[in-house]
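Key idea: predict the complex, not the pieces.
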Amino acid sequence: KQEVTQIPAALSVPEGENLVLNCSFTDSAIYNLQWFRQDPGKGLTSLLLIQSSQREQTSGRLNASLDKSSGRSTLYIAASQPGDSATYLCAVRGGNKLVFGAGTILRVKS
Amino acid sequence: DTAVSQTPKYLVTQMGNDKSIKCEQNLGHDTMYWYKQDSKKFLKIMFSYNNKELIINETVPNRFSPKSPDKAHLNLHINSLELGDSAVYFCASSQDGTGDQPQHFGDGTRLSIL
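Result:
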């Protein structure tokens, strides 16, 4: 049974810092991995999707890496801004469904 | 021009009642999903439909019955509501069921059972 763990559970940083969020999964037989952002009272917004054959994906200040063999992914956020404050969720797809981690709550202080 | 819309946004009701949550997507996607997010914030898949056909049915009590009248709509009916059903329910859609395309989520329905 696939299990997804995200570390840290919460993170508070000053504006402008670069930061890394971690995601690990127990079963490396995945099709892809997706990072989402969830704002309070809102649904999830897809940030990046990495196929199992890819090593990384970039979008603006976000860079996500995938090491399938070790069961790890990182989300790197450059030059963080207060608007980045949200919960970040990692989800892996094995079979025909997504399995989510519990998320990292990020707070960027101005 | 909301992509995935759910109604109602909030639902407060008493134990034992029957309620429905509606979901509509205007993205032209073939696949729709229902997820449950519990108090610990874990999101778990409940159901998935592809072109009105059920393709995922997780271990969910049969009090929960999804219905897809067409591929743009996936409704969730819940019978005999219990305290443990209190959660946020999210609808999502994707281009197809292969999983190669990202899923797009609605804003959720917050269900509270008194």
